[in-house]
Structure formats: C-alpha cells, structure tokens
Amino acid sequence: MNWMIFKSSILRSTLVFFLLFIAALATTTGVFAQEKETAKKEKKQKKDPADRKWAIRGYLKEMPGITHFDTTTTILLYPVDKQTYFSNLIHNRIQFKWYINDNFTFNTHLRNRFMHGSYISYINSQLPPLTIDGIDTYGELMREAGDGNGYLPLTFLWHNKAASVGISSIDRLNIDFVKGNFEARIGRQRINWGISSVWNPHDIFNTINFTDFDYEEGPGTDAVRIQYYTGVASSIEFAFSPSNRHFRHSVGGGLLRLNKGIYDFQILGAYFDRYALAGFGWAGGIKNMGFKGEWIYFQPLKNRSNLIRNVVGVLGFERTFKNTFLNLSFLYIDKPSPNAEIGLAGANINRLDPTSLSPYRWNMLFSSSFSLSPIWSVALTSWYSPSESHFSFVSPSTGLSVKENLMLEAFGQLLFSKGASYPYKYNSSAVFLRLKWSY
Predict the structure, then answer these.
(1) 138 φ, ψ to 5°?
(2) Closest to 104 measured CA to CA, from 220, 191, 25
(3) What is the rounded distance in angstroms from the CA atom of residue 148 to the CA atom of residue 206?
(4) What's the CA dihedral at 299, 357, 198, 343 to 10 degrees?
(5) Is the Cβ–Cβ distance between 308 and 319 less than 8 Å?
(6) Which of 21-25, 352-356, 372-376, 414-418 has the highest mean pLDDT?
(7) Is 159 helix (H, G, I), strand (E, B) or coil?
C-alpha cells in the first residue's frame, strides 16, 4: 500500500474517532449533571418538548425540471448537444442537534439526494471517452464534489446507474463548546465570513454558488474554529481547514470584527492554497439604504506561472420597503479564474472559490422580491457582465405557502450571451417546480 495513502487514511480515521470521543466525554459529563435533577423535573422534561436535550428537523423536497440548450455548450467541461433534457430530484435533509450540557453541543446534518432523467443519462454517455482521474460517471463526479472542501470522506454514492444517481453526504458534523465569551468548534461546519448578500469573496473556506438555489445551507468544510466575543458586535476568531490533497492546499486565517456607530467592519488575514490574503469589509447604511462591501487581495507565496496576484471586490446597496426588498451588487475580479463556470441549477457541481465567482472581470446584479400576500411572494434576479460576450443571467421565481410546513415554488433560469459564431441570444434555459415539506 502506498505510504501516503495509508497515512492519510489513518489521519482521517483518527479525526472521526476524536469527534466521537469528545461526544462520549461530554455525554458522561451531561449524565452526571442530569442525575442530580429531581424525579419531578425529569417527568416534566418528558412532557415538555421545550426542555428536550435534542432536536431533529429537516425537509423533504421533490423538484422536477426541464433544461433546454439552444446551442452546443459545455457542462462540467463536457459538450452538451442542442436539445431538451428532463430531470427529477428527490432531496431529503435531516438535521440533528444534541444539547449535551450547558457547554457542549453536537450537531450533524445528513443530505440525501436521488436524481434521475435524460440529463444524467446524456452526461454519462459523454463521460467514458473523456475520463479524468478515473472518474467516468456523473455519480462519481458528484461524490468527488461532495467532499471537495472536506478532509474526511463523508459522501457516499449508494446508487449509480446510467440514468439515475443516489448520493448521501454529511455536510455538518461537529462539536461546539461555549463558555462565557469563548466558543470553539471542531468538525465539518460552515464558516461564514462573508458580509454581502450575493457574492462573498471573504468566504474563503466554503464559497456559495448562488445559482444553485436548492442548496440553501451551503457546503461545509472540516475545520477547527475558535471565537472570542469582545463586545456585542465585535469579536476575534481563527480557523484552520486542512486539505485532503496536500498541506499546501490548506486554508487558515484570522478575522477581526469591529463596530463603529451604525457600521460593522471586519479585517481578514489568511493563508489560502499557496496565497497570502488580506481583506477588508463593512456593513452599514447611507440614509435609508443598506451599504455593504468586501475586498480581498491575493499574493502568491511561490513564483509560479499559475499563481498570480489578484483582487476581488464587491459593493452592495439594499433597500427595504413595506413588502419589497431590492438589492444592487457589483462584483470585480481583476483576473477571473479560467476554471470559473456559470451553469443552471444542478448543471454545475464544481466547487467555487473567491476568484471563480464569475468568469468575467466586471459584473452587475439586481435582485428584487415582493410579497403579494402573507402566503405568496415573487422574485426576480438578473446578472449582467459588459464583457465581450455580454453575458446575462435572468431568474424569476415565485413561492406559495400551501400550509404551515408545505411550500410550492417555481423557478426559471435563462442564460444569454454572444459567441464568435452566433449573435446575442439565449443559450440555455431551465424551469423547475419544487414541493417542500418541512418538519
């Protein structure tokens, strides 16, 4: 057996054992504390759900969709012919939280998905002759993407056929310790350092793809995070996430949050995959309008042709009325990543980083949402880049609350651009209908 593979396997197994050991240790502490409670209080806890030491919640979704490509394009770097594809997604999420005692909390989320349709069968038909790193099915691509930001192998491909895929992923698995103003968390978690409403270049640990509307929680990463709150709106924190490939691809850094008047500020310093980072962000207001921004600078630590200096910045303006929310955001990437892709929901499973938020230097996005009634809302998002291709993305949506825990929603997505061989027109479009039951 290759020694590096064996060593990596041992390290990952040790981390899993360490998480379970902490849970067991904290459980013992909790048991001793609970033994001191009176029988009367124990009886009350059984009757009152508010006093339970654990909570389970989640949802079940079904989302059929139709995707049409008007020109031959590429998805996941593979060619997709001009035609219409059908897909259906059954998506279940289980969230379990265990309040072990006053200081320790155990948290885990399981994401289960089953997909089938002509879109998957077509991608599978294209993959074998274009195999990369031994991956020759759509399901295997999804499995690799599922643990893209994780050190531990917590994504499981349990069904992999020509026209259907079943996959489960543990995207949260952590122990949280809180005592006074101090908080520490270890395990798979979401580290949200971003401020802006749409694009977040400060999210260096797990960047969100906002076109993937069906993954509201966002990806997690295996990390250690330590926070100390110095005030109501100020704190200092450190986080480190090891890479599952090589240590030089790891991510780690510190974030300082400060408050001055109506403005919250943050200063970031970090190491990111052979880069040194320095960032600055703010959130405040100008009269009745919200004003947010994030800027970050990438400095290569090695002199290599594929490592370049870069600057990524976002400015955002927001306004809320009685039943309406408006947002106008601008994104600038000095040197966009050549691997950046923009795909319809479900068509792009590549993980993003702050330099691949867009394949274009200048970007503008306008979004609005309006409540027609307490149970019915509509929204519209439009994204434009004044690049050579004049790329545009338009996404209307609507949602109806059928009952307290049942939501019916519809989403549309359209991509427009201009190519060397064709005039400005729409390239692809998709329509999705989603039924969501929450529990």
Answers:
(1) -65, -35
(2) 25
(3) 10
(4) -170
(5) no
(6) 372-376
(7) strand
Q: Can you give the CATH number for the domain in which 301 is found?
A: 2.40.160.10
For residues 85 and 62, the answer to whether their CB atoms sit within 8 Å is no
Pair 70, 415: CB distance under 8 Å: no
Q: Pick from 148, 209, 206, 144: which is nearest to 359 by CA?
A: 209
What is the total count of domains within the chain?
A: 1
Domain with 296 in it: 55-438
What pLDDT, on a 0 to 100 scale, did the predictor assign at position 349? Answer: 61
Please write the tens of the pLDDT for every residue from 223-275: 999 999 999 889 999 999 998 778 888 999 999 999 999 999 999 999 998 99
Measured distance CA(60)–CA(64) in Å, rounded: 14
The helix-helix angle for 118-126 and 138-146 (nearest 10°) equals 90
Extract the tokens encoding 224. Answer: 């250690």
- Helix (H) / strand (E) element for 31: namely helix 3-35
Q: Which of 152, 163, 235 is closest to 193 using CA atoms?
A: 235
Q: What is the arithmetic mean of pLDDT over 175-197?
A: 95
CA 143 to chain centre: 16
Q: What are phi and psi of 127, to 5 degrees?
A: -70, -45
236 beta partners: 228, 256
Q: Could you tell me the pTM of the whole model?
A: 0.82
Cα(227)–Cα(178) distance, rounded to whole angstroms? 9
Distance CA 208, CA 211 (A): 9
Q: Which residue has the tokens 């090891």?
A: 242
Distance CA(52)–CA(30), nearest Å, equals 13
